[in-house]
Automatic annotation (TrEMBL):
Keywords of this entry: Pyridoxal phosphate
Organism: Pontibacter amylolyticus
A Pfam family per the record: DegT_DnrJ_EryC1
Family affiliation: Belongs to the DegT/DnrJ/EryC1 family.
Domain of life, per lineage: Bacteria
SUPFAM superfamilies (alphabetical): PLP-dependent transferases (SSF53383)
Protein name: DegT/DnrJ/EryC1/StrS aminotransferase family protein
Entries under InterPro entries matching the protein: DegT/StrS_aminotransferase, PyrdxlP-dep_Trfase, PyrdxlP-dep_Trfase_major, PyrdxlP-dep_Trfase_small
Amino acid sequence: MARHAIWNACQALGLKRNDVVLVPAYHHGSEIEALLKAGLSIKYYELNDMLEPDENELEQLITPDVRALYLTHYLGFTQDAAYWRKWCDQRGLLLMEDAAQAFLATREGQPVGSFGHMGVFCLYKTYGIPDGAAVIADVAIPAPTSRPKSGFIRMAKRHFNWLAERNSMFGRVRWFFAPILTWWRLKTDRPDEDFALDDPMLPPANMSSRLLPSVLSESTAEIRRANYQYLLDHLSDLVPAPFRTLQGGESPFAFPIETEDPRGFLKSIRKQGIEGLLFWFFPHPSLPVEDFPKSKLRREHILAVPVHQELTKAHLEHIVNAVLETQGKLTRTAIVAS
């Protein structure tokens, strides 16, 4: 997983215990856990309205123990990593690029993740494989040494969900068992499971290694951009500001929607067969949430719907209709309540 790539890159880059990394307050959490498990300390920084670091804030955070800047490419949209690499070089810092959601994205023709001293990618966020991550760096990264898992169970689950989105019979089965599965997850999941590092030397599952060469395609990012543009043409009023325009090099991970009731929104579209997600709803426990109000608001109001390369025109039309219908219902409910 990408968190394993981060941990290994920290070792290879020579970062030492208690070295400080500047990290965004708007994050998934697993990357933060990987940095902490690598023995590093962190300082959080807020992002501006376009999800970019604020240079003045970063300057105030720099102390002699700060060794690196952690830069995230959100939802496959690219940061100006070339600028931040130059900024880091001038200050003797390492640039760590998180392209977990931006595999195959480019900035001015150069692959995202290749600007920094290291870049990490999460392959299964782009392709329907059980797991798999990649890392590139200015130094050699040791190969994973643990025994790989088969990946069969996760692959079977993904295939069933794929069928459930395309076949009414499988869809009804998933809908029937969904409450039971939710109950079981709540009963058995570890509170920190979404952030846990586990074994950082674990290689991709055997099935991931076998499948990736057959699904990898240079056209993937282009198809995702086209799907994103279609949704944007119909739903732009619901999209957060940083994601309202495509520049041409993005590889969109998902399509973001800003709403007052993301949980209610997701529940409604799931009844119509669309599997969305709350986008980074839970921060890492180390984050003082109230100190970063912009990131807090994003967590509370943004969800995401599919934009992947397997969607057809009919799927995209269905997403648009479901989103507009749900938004209409929520708006009418809000008006009645007021």
